[in-house]
Amino acid sequence: MKPLITLLIFITFLVSCAQDKKAVKGETEFQRELNAEYKDATTSPLKDKDRKHFEGLEFFKFDEAYVVTATLKRTPDTKFFNMKTTTDRVSKERVYGILTFELKGNTYQLNVYQGKDLMERDGYEDYLFLPFLDETNGLESYGGGRYIDARIPKGDTMEIDFNKAYNPYCAYNDKYSCPIVPRENYLKTRIEAGVKAFGKH
């Protein structure tokens, strides 16, 4: 019987250790994954001093109203251009298409971009980049706008989930070079979804 008691004590110890380890914060899977990435020293864009005390990013509350189906008008003849970044580097991008969608009774448009470098990387051939600005920037959200990741859809519609909008790495650490959101991707409305500004509570 003695080994069984030892085993039970050991299992109890393991369970209590697991409970002591803080669960990753987040209301949705996207939020939990992002928080786990930012907590991990090997993947985090945070400065060491910020990561040491990091418990989780601030998010707007998940809102189904900010998950929209957009019509995609492809623009196959667009040329690559130099998208400015926060450093001297430029990002070679082209307008892959124009997304038109309705949000809370109003119609909006956003350009969705395709990066030249990413097209040549394994696993990213169908990657699209959707940066946007809105009227929460500089208040609840990061002043430089936010990004959404997307993939080329098979048809002529694309789901945009603004709850998955995240900040450029430059919002956390100025050592990064981040594409500057083009002015034509300004939404004249408040997008109360996705990641909030870092360090504002």
Mean pLDDT rating: 90
- How would you characterize the largest beta sheet? 5 strands, antiparallel
Query: Judging from the principal axes of the Cα atoms, what is the shape?
Result: globular
Radius of gyration: 21 Å
Please report the distance between the alpha carbons of the first and last residues: 54 Å
Query: What is the structural class?
Result: alpha+beta
Number of strands: 7
Q: What's the helix-strand series?
A: HHHEEEEHEEE
Low-pLDDT runs: 6-21
Summarize the model shown.
With 201 residues, this protein is an alpha+beta fold. 19% of the residues lie in helices and 26% in strands.
Keywords, separated by commas or semicolons:
single chain, 201 residues, 5-stranded antiparallel beta sheet, 26% strand, two-stranded antiparallel sheet, 7 strands, alpha+beta, globular
